[in-house]
Amino acid sequence: MASEVCxxxxxxxxxxxxxxxxxxxxEMEDTGFGAGRLARAVEIYERMIKDGxxxxxxxxxxxxxxxxxxxxVEMIRRKMVHIIVSTGANMVHDLLEAxxxxxxxxxxxxxxxxxxxxxxxxxxxxxxxxxxxxxxFDNPMLSILDEIARETRESLSSADLMREIxxxxxxxxxxxxxxxxxxxxxxxxxxxxxxxxxxxWEAAAKYNRTPPTIDVVKExxxxxxxxxxxxxxxxxxxxxxxPKNYIFQVAxxxxxxxxxxxxITMDRPEPGGLSGATLEEAVSWGKVxxxxxxxxxxSDTTICLPILxxxxxxxxxxx
Amino acid sequence: MASEVCxxxxxxxxxxxxxxxxxxxxEMEDTGFGAGRLARAVEIYERMIKDGxxxxxxxxxxxxxxxxxxxxVEMIRRKMVHIIVSTGANMVHDLLEAxxxxxxxxxxxxxxxxxxxxxxxxxxxxxxxxxxxxxxFDNPMLSILDEIARETRESLSSADLMREIxxxxxxxxxxxxxxxxxxxxxxxxxxxxxxxxxxxWEAAAKYNRTPPTIDVVKExxxxxxxxxxxxxxxxxxxxxxxPKNYIFQVAxxxxxxxxxxxxITMDRPEPGGLSGATLEEAVSWGKVxxxxxxxxxxSDTTICLPILxxxxxxxxxxx
Amino acid sequence: MASEVCxxxxxxxxxxxxxxxxxxxxEMEDTGFGAGRLARAVEIYERMIKDGxxxxxxxxxxxxxxxxxxxxVEMIRRKMVHIIVSTGANMVHDLLEAxxxxxxxxxxxxxxxxxxxxxxxxxxxxxxxxxxxxxxFDNPMLSILDEIARETRESLSSADLMREIxxxxxxxxxxxxxxxxxxxxxxxxxxxxxxxxxxxWEAAAKYNRTPPTIDVVKExxxxxxxxxxxxxxxxxxxxxxxPKNYIFQVAxxxxxxxxxxxxITMDRPEPGGLSGATLEEAVSWGKVxxxxxxxxxxSDTTICLPILxxxxxxxxxxx
Amino acid sequence: MASEVCxxxxxxxxxxxxxxxxxxxxEMEDTGFGAGRLARAVEIYERMIKDGxxxxxxxxxxxxxxxxxxxxVEMIRRKMVHIIVSTGANMVHDLLEAxxxxxxxxxxxxxxxxxxxxxxxxxxxxxxxxxxxxxxFDNPMLSILDEIARETRESLSSADLMREIxxxxxxxxxxxxxxxxxxxxxxxxxxxxxxxxxxxWEAAAKYNRTPPTIDVVKExxxxxxxxxxxxxxxxxxxxxxxPKNYIFQVAxxxxxxxxxxxxITMDRPEPGGLSGATLEEAVSWGKVxxxxxxxxxxSDTTICLPILxxxxxxxxxxx
Lengths: 319, 319, 319, 319
Description:
Four copies of one chain form a homotetramer.
Chain A: H1 2-5, H2 21-28, H3 33-50, E1 54-59, H4 63-66, H5 69-77, E2 83-86, H6 88-98, E3 104-105, H7 112-118, E4 120-123, E5 126-129, H8 131-151, H9 158-166, H10 175-181, E6 186-187, H11 195-205, H12 216-228, E7 233-238, H13 241-253, E8 258-265, H14 279-284, E9 288-298, H15 301-318
Parallel strand pairs in A: 1-2, 1-7, 2-6, 7-8, 8-9
Antiparallel strand pairs in A: 3-5, 4-5
Helix pairs in contact in A: 2-3, 2-15, 3-15, 6-8, 8-11, 9-10
């Protein structure tokens, strides 16, 4: 009996100069802790792709300001993701760059009073000049919202809105643009909790326009339609927050547990919130299947996401 | 110069049997780390009340299942909070109890497959039988939603909806009921990301009803109206997530930084998300004032919230 | 079966002004997350005292600079702790205060280059002038070490050394002094990793003295003798580090699992180190008993320790 | 002025299949959060090597059970590390494997009572049969300790002991063996807090032998001699604990701040302990230089260490 649980020895990681990311992950396969979990995430991601699962991506935390957007674009292009659920902020920062703005490398500890005087907004160690929110977001977005409002009669889901915006921008490194092109819907459940929401309000309240109307039940309906009849389903959750809960609640609603789940986060179970809840806990709710392939990697997302995707790209290319 | 930064000695905590929570906090005033920060939070909370500030509460994490609801009710009754921004889940669990359901003490590590078979849903170390979501939430809520839809023509903000629900329930220990009684609006920006949202969808899709329509821009408008003309403003943020961002974005929109801010959370700045961002970072954005009284307590919320509120109640009673 | 795991409802915390710490803990007894765990810790601590267990305290992290020393002194005086295992640093800071030095309230984020110029050393948000290490530690300690060396022929364990020092100081608020008075041994397994160690080296290398010789095997022998024949054993672990491992390894060595264990820490299991390992993991090693009363509170120690001890003092006084 | 802090734009990570680890790090150079920090760590490690710095490695956490030992061996062989300061546990597990034992992939959540019955010890998700501590550690080590005691008259520092053991084993994948071969001293300041310490005690107390005598002041003397006259100094700290403090205290003692510092850890500053203290804090103490190249990566060590070392190997090979 004891021998049953001790049959796969830890095989220490062996490095060589110039090894590929995929080779490094192979070396991590028989290790413990985070390394073993990350290697398992690569394996699960590969399997969910090869199994033809519908793949949902939960996208929280300031991933775009940190420089992660092209990875998501790559995932979209390579059909490694089919539905995105995002915080509003990530979409705002993607659009800000699409409209010519930028983020800058700053410092994790800074003189925030000085930054305030300079009107530079800090996101941990990334800086963004506040004027960009005006010139590279509000102004171009207002025109786009006007155009959308003119052309569409009906109320829109957040995914409709993101698609409409995506069709009107040209930056090929933009998540919003790429998602439009590849018909990957982007759901932003708390859209009013972002500069997009602020602008919808301003359009009417400050600029006397008639912005598009957002319909949250239509959003649920579209999201559910996209997921409920899928065969196998897989979820890749970066961070936690609303995207994690939203991706899981469809499984709860339709009693259709995910077959594959990867979460990369620094959140932990002990505070009791859903963001850091274990994937085992989600089994009790029927959100994750009893026999699902699942792994939670407790580590920095900006480090693990590039490795995960690079390694899977290498493997998929191989096959 | 050096003597300037070394003038307030750490005074070790001295305990005595039967001391009050307020006396314990007094002992923590001249200490370091979390203890000093919690004592500072008590001081700031007292000041924001005495200063007549408009007080907003950000309410994330599964605080109601953990047993924190009566503290919020107490804060509402004593006018220690004026506006609540909550996750949907906390309101769902508050209503579930108001409709006769309950949560149970479970275990932090459990056999989730067995729980799944028993249809018991786990929230860290709290258990809730899944049938309660039907009998003690969906059924009574459907009738209430019907009634609201009949009686109101216009679309509703999430705060309108919570108020309408609150007016139709009677449990005096319910946050939703108490908030209705004391005219404390509850904003739930990601309402579709909760069982309330699921039910709004089900009402139409499964039960052929016409549920109330939710208007997210109206929500922003009401929220902004409630905050923008206030004199001093204070924020008490439990956890992070959408409530933190939503409470901060009104300050950003109206260039009206908070004068008082307390955050109790286990989230940290290094992953880069807003939940764990320092309050100094918020200064760069103009969300928190340069001269604001602010403190971030990195500790378990279910431990710190009761102490914070009990100590402030003791002090306010004193004065 | 399902009803078996759902029989103890969460009872929400009810506050009243002027409630005692013990009353607050009673309110937390039927809650979840950290609050429920802290209430459980109080219950376990009370039981280990009433059961006459030998109580070991693991003492890591900069608890003395933060202002926690008088709590430990109180625990010693009230016979709530019988053996202490500490980092060197906590003992150094206790002695520094005993010799007339002090710590000061500083700030969690500071200009460390400026502090360096001013020769002020920072410990998170506590400051200590570097000269104190000379005037209020090195100088008086050198004389004491000389005296000890003269009077004792044999090599000393770290506990012998701490006892000898304790007998030569008079500050009644000192942990080292109180431990001497009440015959509570203090083991400092990594004594060379502290200013005490530095001074032992300096005594010989810089000042041409013959300092006492430290014997690490004698230390183990004394520690083992003190623990191995005890009836019931209990451990209270603040933080993690060497003290946690050292306290647990005696149980491993003698196949004598602890009957009661409380750990308060911010460390977590996922990085794989012992500091944050769950107490369940310790069961596999036989360090903690299968039927032990145990709880791990993941929360700030400087907040939880005062509450824990104040509540137990209130209860013990009651009985 | 504002433009000064916003001159280096974040450049999003661009992936391609089959990219090397070094290429991935190049892509992370102009990103934020953990990714940017890890890229900076690679740059700093490369610089400390090229600058001819004396490189110290702090080695805490159960890195060997997790499968990290061959990375350390590689660092030793390539002269990428010159002095090691380790917890006892890592050396114990290295020796256990050198003597024919093994660790196994287990699970992060397990039935620890069952494991206890099977006598399998759990280290997060790594399992080790308890009998290995007897057959693959105690027995061979006892003979070695006997031999060492016979051949050496004087008391030994922990580094002397590790070197003597290293000279008597042959496993080329062992850290202890490789360190001996390449004359890299391994200091284990809390050696009594490990199975090595237990065995030293057992040798005398149970087996009637005369084990080698450990001298902690001699250890400090050797450590200080090895560091104090070095030109530039660099520290790579994995985890925290005693190794971090021990490596930093030599800088404090000799007023010789490190020129290069990398720390990879999941510990954080808020609990106030040294393990998670920022490297800025260490500047106030003069442990890290005001102008030092330093970075703290808050992320899983078992993921970041392989990447760091692989990337540096790739670069050094290039040059």
